[in-house]
Amino acid sequence: MDLQEKRTPIIKFDKVSFQYDSQAEKNLIDINFDVYAGETILIVGPSGSGKSTIARCINGQIPNTHPGQLDGFVSVNGKEVQTSSIFDLSLEVGTVLQDTDGQFVGLTVAEDIAFALENDGVEQEKMQTIVENWSETLEIDDLLQSMPNKLSGGQKQRVSISGILVNNAPILLFDEPLANLDPASGADTMRLINQLSKKHNYTTIIVEHRLEEALLADIDRILVIDEGKLVFNSSPTELLKSTVLQEVGVREPLYLTAMKYAGIDINKYNHVNTFSQINLLSEDIKLIEEWASQVTHEEDFNEKDTILRVDHFNFSYNSETNVQTLSDIKFSVNEGEMISIVGTNGAGKSTLAKAISGFVKPSSGKIIVNNEEIRDLSIKEIADTVGFIMQNPNNMISKTMLYDEVALGLINRGWKESDIEEKVFDTLKICGLYPYRNWPISALSYGQKRRVTIASILVLDPKILILDEPTAGQDYAHYTDMMQFLNQLNLERDMTILMITHDMHLMQEYTDRTLVFDTGKLLADTNPSELFSNTHLLKAAHLTETSLYQLGKLLPSMTSEDFIGRFMRYERGMR
């Protein structure tokens, strides 16, 4: 980037404030920053801090489709946002949404990538060449005739990126690109973004919760937003060495947490953006091992009754074929266990959850809940014991108002109105939703909608709770609140909790047991520390080596598995 380029910002925010018409408070307050051509900028902050509002100002959704009072000056590649249409700004900014499914318009991948070109009246032969070139660059050329909604999360992300690259917009805007991706796909996506940005000199803006993974995109600068204000604007290393992340409630990379637990001063290292950059000194490796060796573990020898047994379970969505979605699944769960269920998309995890909840019946084999086989029970009868919370909250929500949604199950069970209100209010307080009790659900964020669906199940007091990706789209503060709440349910009510997840932090911190699925089979019934030390299982589950595992490999007299286990136990003790 030459000096002349750097003097002229490609994006400029000058004393920008914004308040949505539907809200009483400002969402942005006196925001000032510049972005220069070729920079890769990461915007982080807790939910509701104003990150997405900044993104909407950049791509023209504000003020064009989100009415409100926009003060100050915003320009994008020389165009003043306040006086530009969304179409004008779409020529400058290509946006990849958090929900990739909501961005697809074509019946095939090729059609979807070509959509913008068709709208611009590009000649057919030229259009095909452009689509083929970008699909090859993003390694999805073998998927051009596939239906977008049949792809994996990582593949969908690449199709969405291809669809904006064909426009040749100089600015790429990614709104939480990791939200619905497993760790392996997430890491691939961040490396891809870095590759594209550097090779084609894009100006790249990334809005993201998952800081450690986002840093794989070789970030130049990080903006931290908190309560509508810009509280930090500098390099990743400066941020990681400061206390800003702790102050605003954004999680720092776990290798830094481990170093701090061991009493290491990270300021003596020049670069700490990624674990590979640090090059730990031998004396600091010794400090980490000494710290970890002091973490003890008390075994819980309390025998508990079995509450769930899956016995040689088989299931196929197509009875006319021999292809099994789930094949000979066998495991049991004791009361009060917290278990993570992992595996790639299509491995059978969600189908298993549906089977335990009674939504699908086995081809053969049994599922026994509370000593009763559920094959002949109704979904309502099973729901008295098993609560299933789906990944997409929109698939569960049926009411307009938040209170009505959470109260619905109690109404269907014939509760008195006065008792319903007390129970619903208690549940909303526990889930952090009480301030929104009179809100329409449409006014809530995606993460808040997820908590509404959890509240609507928890209000019924199930003995077994199954959650599909409970932390997807949640910032660290809400993630911690929700997981501590689930942990409290587990400890105080002895509730059995099964969580389908790709969240490696969740597995490490909150579960002692992990079921690993691949292509409809149960590959392993193990613990998280063993899983993260087994490269074969990691690959099968589409996970990646964590920075804790990489740190553990440096310890001369302790295995990575042992180190991860000790770190997890210490973290739980800190809670």
TrEMBL record:
For this entry, the protein name equals: ABC transporter ATP-binding protein
ABC transporter domain: from which residue to which, for each copy? Answer: 11-252, 308-544
- Tell me the keywords, alphabetical order: ATP-binding, Cell membrane, Membrane, Nucleotide-binding, Repeat, Translocase, Transport
Q: What does this protein do?
A: Probably part of an ABC transporter complex. Responsible for energy coupling to the transport system.
Question: Molecular function terms in GO for this entry?
Answer: ATP binding
Q: Give compartment(s).
A: Cell membrane
State the CDD domains in the record.
ABC_cobalt_CbiO_domain1 (cd03225)
Has the keyword Isomerase been applied to this entry? no
Chief place of localization: membrane
